[in-house]
Amino acid sequence: MENRATDTTPALEVRGLYAAYGQEPVLENISLSLTQGQWTAIVGPNGGGKSSLLSVVIGSLAPLRGELRILGRPSLAQRQAGSIAYMAQQERMEWDFPISVSDTVMTGRFGLMRHDPLWRRLLPQRWAAPIHRQAVEEALDAVDMTDMAARPIGELSGGQKKRVMLARALAQRAPILLLDEPLAGVDPPSEALIMATLERQRRAGRTIIMVTHDLSGARRYADQVLLINRTMFGMGTPETMLSDSMLARLATGSPPAPSGGFHAAA
Ligand SMILES: Nc1ncnc2c1ncn2[C@@H]1O[C@H](COP(=O)(O)OP(=O)(O)OP(=O)(O)O)[C@@H](O)[C@H]1O
Ligand SMILES: [Mg+2]
User: Fold this and answer.
1) Nearest 5°: phi and psi at 197?
2) Which of 13, 102, 155, 256 is the most exposed, fewest CB within 10 Å of its CB?
3) Distance between Cα 255 and ligand 1 center (Å)
4) Which ligand lies nearest to the CA atom of residue 45 in the structure?
5) Radius of gyration of the chain (CA)
6) Distance 186 CA to ligand 1 centre (A)
7) Whole-angstrom Cα distance, residue 121 to residue 265?
8) Which of 17, 24, 26, 183 has most ligand 1 atoms within 8 Å of its beta carbon, as the pocket-test mutant?
9) How far apart are CA 31 and CA 38, in angstroms?
10) Does residue 28 contact residue 6 with C-beta atoms inside 8 Å?
11) pLDDT tens for residues 204-243?
């Protein structure tokens, strides 16, 4: 995979991060380091700052303080290099726009098309270079949406749209996948399919950072769990982090003492 500094460079490194919307603090003193190739589940209550943390990672919310590096470089540089694929919790998409499922997934390749020759970029999408078409086909197949490739996106159910947006992220073939609640609104069979797809991605060496409310999925698939509710409540194995006592503490919003034995912010 391109853009890897070395295999030991952390996929994501955050130090002393604070962020706010206006006067309202949303993240306080977040510090963590994620190894490449691992699956991290981010768990916390509604309004706990999970999506905001991803916004900081992709560079759309500027931190007040702190440092953040992706594969050893600033997030903007890594976004431009195609190292991060991001799937938002809510797409700011115009679903009435007459665009097909496969063209929607192809938009995930747009950043990478910069490297194509100009004549190619001027052609309609269906004549995109084979590498782009192949990535789109594979991604649609991965979420079992091949049969719907030609359908207008606006005609799909909420869960089907979600699968298409995941395909759009997968089509980027980025080494790091940032997924904000990819299972929200999907039915149990699609949920199983998505988790199996992500497991394959992880086995292929990709780093998965996924916000989720699905604790059983996190227990089963994640290598580690990050608990946040404005500040960090812990980071560790799913078994330790998703214990009843940790989850109760997370829900009450009283963070652990820094010396409490958790991997809290240093
Ligand atoms: N664009 C914004 N402008 C102002 N406040 C915001 C904005 N986005 C989020 N917030 C506030 O920041 C806090 C954290 O929101 P965030 O969306 O990060 O939480 P979350 O953990 O992702 O919650 P959920 O589980 O509901 O998705 C909330 O209090 C929210 O109201
Ligand atoms: Mg959210």
Assistant:
1) -65, -45
2) 155
3) 19
4) 1
5) 19
6) 22
7) 46
8) 26
9) 17
10) no
11) 999 999 999 999 999 999 999 999 999 999 999 999 999 9
